[in-house]
């Protein structure tokens, strides 16, 4: 009798798991359908596909770092006490690794919900600056499309996009839109797939593997070649120093301070550089 009940319970649990995965797949299909209707009402032409391919080609090497960080974050979600289902929802709905890692210790200590939201806002306040810089390129789009682009934006995509089009006089072209999509779409898939792998397979990874350090090295290999001007070098140097000094600060405020300090240093250095060029 007990054995039959255990078998029945196992079947119900298995059925529930199947239904849950089917629901997630249906949600993903719905999102893809909305994206298709919003952005791909007609199949993109050859030029659009080439521009998308340029973005994909530029971001390919960065996907190594993105995937590593996603995998590490997925492991951290489960180790913090979240169930696999809760961790899956969080990684799909909160596309921000720094916000996730900031929220986890606060959730573990049962901190107020408002404090968790404020902490997540502070560590991601840099995206306000990113959005303001990208606004001239996409302001001609409807607000749902801009909201879509904003949700899927990432640090790597912003750096690569501004590195190519930041000084462009023409803003708002189809080339720029499809190039940006070629950056953000692969990053989203790489992050979420690797994060899901971390959630469901992270327990198989030996604790001796220093994945966090590997992710840092991968990011450095991407960012350092992009530093080609004095303002960019000053921005990186000041942000790095502030981030290092601000490690003990609560709520990861050192990260927010590093972003603000790096931007200020870069802008100041650029203005001084222009002033020196104008002076006889």
Automatic annotation (TrEMBL):
One cellular component term from this protein's GO annotations in UniProt: plasma membrane
Subcellular location: Cell membrane
GO BP, sorted A to Z: L-valine transmembrane transport
Pfam families: AzlC (PF03591)
Membrane topology qualifier: Multi-pass membrane protein
Lineage of origin: Bacteria, Pseudomonadati, Pseudomonadota, Betaproteobacteria, Burkholderiales
Domain of life where this protein originates: Bacteria
Entry's transmembrane regions: 59-78, 113-134, 146-165, 177-201, 213-243, 249-268
InterPro entries: Brnchd-chn_aa_trnsp_permease
Family membership noted in the UniProt record: Belongs to the AzlC family.
Organism: Pollutimonas bauzanensis
Keyword terms: Cell membrane, Membrane, Transmembrane, Transmembrane helix, Transport
Protein name: Predicted branched-chain amino acid permease (Azaleucine resistance)
